[in-house]
Amino acid sequence: MRHVDDSPITxxxxxxxxAYDHGTEHxxxxxxxxxxSADPSHVFEVGRHDAVTAIALQKGNAEYYRAWERExxxxxxxxxxxxxxxxxxxxxxxxxxxxxxxxxxxxxxxLDADAxxxxxxxxxxxxxxxxxxxxxxxxxxxxxxxxxxxxSYPRGKxxxxxxxxTGQEDPDVVAYGAxxxxxxxxxxxxxxxxxxxxxWQQVEDTVSGLxxxxxxxxxxxxxxxxxxxxxxxxxxxxxxxxxxxxxxxEDPEGLLDSLExxxxxxxxxxxx
Length: 272
Ligand code: FBP
Fold this sequence. Notes:
By secondary structure, the protein is α/β, with parallel strands linked by helices. The chain has helices spanning 22-25, 40-46, 59-71, 104-110, 127-143, 157-160, 171-184, 197-207, 222-233, 244-247, 253-265, and strands at residues 15-19, 54-57, 80-83, 115-120, 148-152, 188-191, 211-215, 239-242.
């Protein structure tokens, strides 16, 4: 089993994953602030920045990505992380569930993936179903030597109806979700920012060295965003998986330059 540090999605142990699955998860509304971001090839180009260690795509865009690389003779595109499951904002369900649309075999053999990703909604009424799917995904990924990134987003009735928790960003909830990544065999876990550095420290204290990356969240100023990222790196976080804070910017190059220094060199944004 290859260690994630030896895979292309990390650099010096850390990662910057450019997430572009929002057309599935949120719908075209996420492209409205920057209409050119609706064109996948625009975001593929952004992903050629040296800071980016993976681009996370749903199956359809992953197929397009490989074709785009071939047709444009792109040799330095970001490594490909195929997101195996996803769900839309259109569905009405009894509780959160993210169905799988791509197999590990297809990701590995047809898409030449460098890693796979799976969203886990622990706390949902459908958690058991997702655990079973994740088991199959994780074991198949091991056979293909692909790192497994868990989008660990505890949410649903089990969280909402438990008075011990204040919601999805409660540090106890985020840390529990991160721990599940370790227990269920992920190589890296992607978690919501719990609001404070102490909250992220709690995550790190829970995962015993498992790779952790912060989920970007909605767009904010460069300074506020870099500060949040640094606060996780400073206590042992391994980087970032980010979508809107990159593709909703007219020119994300400057922010990517800064993120590269913060994530891979540990530079305090105050010194940039
Ligand atoms: P952002 O940086 O834009 O928050 O993207 C990270 C991400 O995990 C995406 O991969 C995904 O589309 C989205 O957030 C899901 O967020 P949520 O389920 O909380 O709406």
